[in-house]
Write a structure and sequence with these properties.
The protein has about 240 residues and is mainly α. Helices cover about 80% and strands about 0% of the residues. The longest helix is centred in the middle third of the chain and has 35 residues. The two termini are about 15 Å apart.
Length: about 240
């Protein structure tokens, strides 16, 4: 499937609307990428202003989701989309929801840096820190891969994205266990350990949403819903 298929309509306005929809999703994805990058940097550098700025970005991301919904409604109301065009509208709405929730989870992860800023501790002193960096870094890469797949209508990295998510499930368990052990083996106040668990879970949820986006791209390109597909069939992508 080529992206040019969405520009082959007789109506120039229809072509522009579909192109706008593509671009709006990618623009929103870029904003969420920035949120993830900032959250990771804020945690690494204990950067309080950067952590707080993620909330500001989140308001913009939320508006982007509303704009995508408006564009989809406009195409549905004024055109009569069929087949691949209709799939594009459906997955644009789905991806926008996943991106919006990724933004929310970025805010949740960054709360660790905000919480620690009022203490004598640093993020790297909290058990689970290395796991958090690993998961957050992987989540950022997974989002980039998913958006590239959408932009190019290319499924070559879909299996990698799904494999990455499964690895991060294991990384979450390991990191959470490290934090739980910290309740008995360190003098770090429990409130900071609990905040680390929240941050870990937020980062792992971002990987879940990246997989959702990848699955939406498969539906757009192949017309197949792989959300409940077994691992053997997923290996074909």
């Amino acid at each position: 499937m080529e992206r040019t298929e969405f520009k082959a309509h007789i109506s120039e306005q229809y072509n522009r609307n579909l192109e706008d929809l593509f671009n709006q999703v990618l623009e929103m994805g870029g904003m969420v990428e920035k949120q993830l990058d900032n959250a990771l940097e804020a945690i690494k550098c204990n950067d309080l202003p950067l952590a707080k700025n993620i909330k500001v970005l989140d308001k913009i991301v939320n508006k982007e989701e509303m704009e995508i919904n408006r564009l989809c409604a406009s195409v549905l109301a004024r055109q009569q989309p069929t087949a691949s065009d209709l799939r594009l509208i459906i997955i644009a709405i789905r991806i926008a929801v996943d991106l919006e929730r990724m933004g929310d989870e970025s805010v949740n992860a960054a709360k660790l840096a905000i919480k620690i800023a009022d203490s004598d501790y640093r993020c790297e002193s909290i058990p689970g820190y290395l796991g958090l960096i690993e998961i957050a870094t992987c989540a950022t890469e997974m989002l980039k891969k998913s958006l590239n797949a959408f932009s190019r209508l290319d499924l070559s990295e879909i299996a990698d994205i799904i494999d990455d998510e499964e690895r991060m499930d294991i990384a979450l368990k390991t990191a959470t266990q490290s934090v739980l052990q910290g309740f008995n083996s360190t003098n770090i106040p429990p409130e900071y350990l609990i905040e680390m668990i929240y941050a870990l879970r937020a980062a792992e949820r971002i990987t879940d949403h990246a997989v959702n986006i990848a699955e939406s791209v498969v539906y757009l390109v192949e017309g197949q819903d792989i959300r409940n597909m077994d691992s053997d069939k997923l290996a074909d992508f």
